[in-house]
Amino acid sequence: MAKKDSNQIKYTGSEKVLDYILLVFCILLVVITVYPFLNVLAISLNDSMDTMRNVNFIIPRKFTLSNYIYIFKENNLAGAFMMSVVKTLVGTIIGVICTAMLAYVLSRKDFYFNKPFTILFIITMYVSGGMIPEYLLITRTLNLGNNFWVYIIPGLIWVYNVILMRSFIEGLPIALQEAAKLDGANDFVIWLKVILPLCTPTIATVALFLAVGQWNSFMDSICTPGICPRCSMYCMRLWSRL
């Protein structure tokens, strides 16, 4: 007769109850996480008129492929997709560069307007001019209504990203910048060859935030047609269809 393993862990009644509670919690967490994806998939495979009555389901009630047929028969699908890719790449690269430059300037203790500019930037996180003033500024004052840069410039700087990167730069040893100055490096060289290589984790984080924001950007394509009005109309038609 085999002997029982003396090293086997023995669970008490309370520990078993806790394990069951954690198991139920994890299952609920998985359901909450997976449900939106299943819901979107079911809506895309369901009749649009039936979906308008109730959108809370994970199995198509009236199965149809008409939604996908409607999308893929459009001639401008590839153009709209490429516009989104280019906008995301250009916006992310330029946004990271501008954010890193601004964060470096605000992190400098010898910058006289450090606190006033920081306060002004933080105010914009809580107070906004609104959609209509922003639209008038972009289209009439800046004349970006029919320009590709309408997708890039308005969302170039995010104050949260600036504060995130500035805080990281302030945590770097100031002796590195002082040593570079002694070697004859100017501020741009210090930023490029000393600060940026050390800020790789923060740069990756900011780049991720900017890329997701640019890719998910929706209102700028609708409100400001830019250089591709057909792409904007295509976004509006997909939104109204799906």
What does this structure look like?
With 242 residues, the chain is mainly alpha-helical. Helices cover 69% and strands 0% of the residues. Helix 4 packs across helix 12 (229-241) and helix 8 packs antiparallel against helix 9. The longest helix has 32 residues, at 13-44. It is flat and about 70 Å long.
Characteristic key phrases:
single chain; 242 residues; mainly alpha; MetI-like fold; 69% helix; 0% strand
Topology:
Layout: H1 13-44, H2 48-51, H3 66-72, H4 77-107, H5 114-126, H6 131-141, H7 159-170, H8 174-182, H9 187-198, H10 200-216, H11 219-223, H12 229-241
Q: Which stretches are low in confidence, meaning pLDDT under 50 for 5 or more residues running?
A: none
Q: Give the mean pLDDT.
A: 83
Q: Largest sheet at a glance?
A: none
Number of strands: 0
Q: What is the CATH homology-level superfamily of the largest domain? A: MetI-like
